[in-house]
Amino acid sequence: MSLPPLVEPADELTVDEVRRYSRHLIIPDVGMAGQKRLKNAKVLCVGAGGLGSPALMYLAAAGVGTLGIVEFDVVDESNLQRQIIHGQSDIGRSKGESARDSVKEINPYVDVILHEERLDNSNVLEIFSGYDLIVDGTDNFATRYLVNDAAVLLGKPYVWGSIYRFDGQASVFWAEHGPCYRCLYPEAPPPGMVPSCAEGGVLGVLCASIGSIQVTEAIKLLAGVGDPLVGRLMIYDALEMNYRQVKIRKDPDCAVCGESPTVTELIDYEAFCGVVSEEAQAAAAGSTITSAQLKQWQDDKEDIFLVDVREPGEYEIVNIPGAVLIPKNEFLMGDALEKLPQDRKIVLHCKSGVRSAEVLAVVKAAGFASAVHLGGGVLGWVNQIEPHKPVY
Ligand SMILES: [Zn+2]
Predict the structure, then answer these.
(1) For tag attachment on the chain, is the N or C end more exposed, with fewer CB atoms within 10 Å?
(2) Catalytic, out of 45, 180, 183, 197
């Protein structure tokens, strides 16, 4: 499938721009016309993190005239392993400003528009409507469905990517010409089932592998060259070093782009994706303790059984004194319950309190009615009780 260019060419390139983009200009498929289209293009990156970093840097270098950045976060030391648009001296700075400075350093001819706010129902349509194309670098399901539905409602194409450990995926979703994200994934996975990169980790360079596919597809769409990744899902396995692709079809029953859509305006995406499951919320209500309370119990030699439900690699990085490691999956499979003592108070914890709430629901359902979990997880513990320890 080939599609017409998304963008009309700018009137002209300056002498400086001709020098800068000469390696593009001598590619017959790009040429002067293609480069002028890039100059006239407005591309929005949702997120200046793992995928947004390489995406913004290469889009800037390629000469995309206007780059929008949606980002409300600040640069954290744990970002620098993969978010290469930021550096050591940017720690603590606004990610949006840090990304803008890097873009300007790579290419001063790019106009940068910062949207330093969390993308939500109140702003997404207005922000998206100012751009020709969206590059989605988000890391959570609620925002992904929001991006998808807003793009479908506005008729905009977007380039999607996702990363986890050694695996990545990418595609172009454009409801006018092919499937959308909901055609591929009609339902969000149950909360707690799919770990985020913060929970499961990601190989830093994987961001470049997938981010570069996203930029390649963006440039092809803007300039109208090649065969866009519409209706195809690219799947990358870094351990096997293998790229494969599967065809994805438009689902006639798709809730947002199908023949009789049920989603005709933006919905409640947090509820749709259930950030914490209803069972976990119910279990945690009235059974959540603070780090200070846990420390008090330990100091008072209370008879508690502290269980860390994270993965072994996380336990190795940092742990709470006295905690026994029993990963969440062992509870979901049912094997872990027999390891719990009947006569001691069960206290569960994870990294931030989401996984331990899920496990709490399982443990309570198995009859451990007095079990509790630690709100804020080991991150909160380190922050309040043992600030000399590392966080991740
Ligand atoms: Zn669809």
Answers:
(1) N
(2) 197
Mark whether 45 is an active-site residue: no
Q: pLDDT (tens digit, 9 = 90+) per residue, 367-388?
A: 999 999 999 999 999 999 999 9
pLDDT of residue 47: 97
**Residue 183 is among the residues annotated as catalytic for this protein:** no
| pLDDT of 130 higher than 80 | yes
What is the whole-number distance in angstroms between the Cα of residue 211 and the centre of ligand 1?
A: 23
Predicted TM-score (pTM) above 0.85:
no
Query: Span 191-217, mean pLDDT?
Result: 89
180, 183, 273, 350: the catalytic one is 350
In angstroms, what is the span from residue 146 Cα to ligand 1's centroid?
A: 13
Distance 152 CA to ligand 1 centre (A): 8
Ligand 1 is a single-atom ion; what residues have CB below 5 A from it?
180, 182-183, 254, 257
CA of 214 to the centre of ligand 1 (A): 20
| Average pLDDT of the residues of the chain | 94
What are 18-36's pLDDT values in tens digits? Answer: 999 999 999 999 999 999 9
- Write down the pLDDT at residue 237: 98
How far is 225 from 229, CA to CA, in rounded Å? 12
Q: Residue 192: its pLDDT value, please?
A: 64
CA of 251 to the centre of ligand 1 (A): 6
Percentage of the chain with pLDDT > 70?
Answer: 99
Spacing, Cα 189 to ligand 1 middle (Å): 17
Please report the pLDDT score of residue 76 as a whole number. 96
For the chain, domains (ranges, CATH) are: 15-273 (3.40.50.720), 278-384 (3.40.250.10)
